[in-house]
Amino acid sequence: MPVPVFLHGRTVRLEPLGEHHIEGLAAAAAEDRSSYAFTPVPHGPEATARYVAEALAARAAGRALPFATVRIADGLVMGSTRFCELDYWQGPVQWPPAPRGPLGDPLTAIPDAVEIGGTWLSAHAQGTGVNTETKLLMLRHAFETWGVRRVSLRADSRNARSRAAIERLGAVLEGVHRAHTRGLDGMVRGTAFYSILDEEWPGVRAGLEHRVEHRTGAGHRHTPQLARPLVSA
Prior knowledge:
This protein is an alpha+beta fold. 30% of the residues lie in helices and 28% in strands. The chain has a nine-stranded mixed β-sheet, sandwiched between helices. The relative contact order is 0.17. This is GNAT family N-acetyltransferase. GO terms for molecular function: acyltransferase activity.
């Protein structure tokens, strides 16, 4: 699977998720939980420790690449996100198609398609542009470092807030799988599936960069981190 990386932005840094993030994640999730009705977010230190342990197990198994979302200005942990559903298309054609692991050395493998998911932010970070910059960093890494052909995103079909955020990224709605699975509330839910293709990325990137530049340039001129370039390392 791809090795863990740090993704550095202007105001946001994505760090490989680790046990040292547990306290910060627990505090971020405890601020105001009213927006988490459709999103699995840990509640309390013990649940957060389990959340991190499960994420690290998924990383060790090659199923996910989880991050902590951190504010550069002061190191505050604001939430989490991850790459998941890593799919590899090398080798003989497989039918019926199904996700499979990489050929060769898994430590140097890069996926051909990936999903961004498991995203949540503290209440105070929502609506501040953190999600936009986070997605820009992840999409740039996926398309420009890995060279993926496709990035997918999904949301509970009832979650109007998350769906609007995904659509603002420039992702295309592929459709809604009706009665797809159970939601966090136990009700049978539909799932809205979105995607961005490699040929669509230049236009999506331009839109996201404009939004990030506008917010950090016009709205936060006092912040010393504005001069930092958007890079991954």
